[in-house]
Amino acid sequence: MMHRKRINCFGSSCQLALVCLQGEAEQLTGIALGELGRLEAKFSSYHPESVISRINQAAGTGCFTPLDPEARSLFDFVTALWEESSHLFDPTTRLLDHCYDDQGQLNATDAQVRGMLKLVGWSQLQLTDEGALLPQKGMLLDFNSCIRPYAIDSVRRRLVKEGVQHAMIEMGHDAVTIGKQADGANWLIGMRHPWGSRTAIHRIKLNGKGFAMRGDFERRIRFRDENFGRGFSPIDGYPVPGMLSVSVVADTCLDACGAASIARLKTEQAAINWLDKLGLPWIAIDRELRCHGPLAPA
């Protein structure tokens, strides 16, 4: 029997769908929600006592926030993305959101943007045996884009350990599945197509895999008379001229997240070349709303 549960987690809507016996649903749902709750409390920037919030609160004080092995592994993952993206993937750019309104219009002067950039830079983060430290007051980290896929991968591992063979966990633009649906049908991820009502929804099969979309063409911004995504450069503070969105399917949601996160920060042709070399299924939408990749609709 299919059981569904929807909650809010990490500032996003999260849906769990799993097939199990009626008597097992409450226990298995409890395990999944317990793991999500644990990781939200531990890592979400929305939770005031999380590791990330404590690092932010201690910025500029000289006090390190201790990191356990799980936390260090996530910091290592983010550092790898930062290096692979030529330092454009940077969780300290959260501050730059304040320079733009909800429609993506710049509401700060060039001088104010340059001033904000003094508080941006993953290279400024100090990682030692004592833990993590942001050296300047006002600096901020936001790991939510990486924690969400890590969290649903962790839920999948817990459910597989409990013997679940058919499940999907979705959160925001991330998803992961266990097997197919019980009747053999494919798990499907719906994607909105940027052109026309006839092809408004594109569906991607996701069986036993992870999916992540980074960027959102529907929330694109107009900057200097061009379309841009909401990825801001830690170098100049302005939108990165890359793909509006990139979606990737991989063995885990975190792997898909890493690939999509890096690709959307490259120039459009460089992103296409890089994704092709990875050999993973992907779809990307460029700044002219054209679709690219093996998953793009024909």
From TrEMBL:
Q: Which family does it belong to?
A: Belongs to the ApbE family.
Q: What is its EC number?
A: 2.7.1.180
Task: Tell me the enzyme class.
Answer: transferase
Known cofactor(s): Mg(2+)
Q: Which keywords does UniProt give here?
A: FAD, Flavoprotein, Magnesium, Metal-binding, Transferase
**Catalysed reaction, written as an equation:** L-threonyl-[protein] + FAD = FMN-L-threonyl-[protein] + AMP + H(+)
Query: What Gene3D superfamilies does the database record attribute to this sequence?
Result: ApbE-like domains
Identification of the protein by name: FAD:protein FMN transferase
Q: Which InterPro entries match?
A: ApbE (IPR024932), ApbE-like_sf (IPR003374)
The record's listing under PANTHER family reads: FAD:PROTEIN FMN TRANSFERASE, THIAMINE BIOSYNTHESIS LIPOPROTEIN APBE
GO MF term (any one): metal ion binding
Carries keyword Ligase? no
> What is the originating organism of this protein?
Seongchinamella unica
Q: Which domain of life is it from?
A: Bacteria
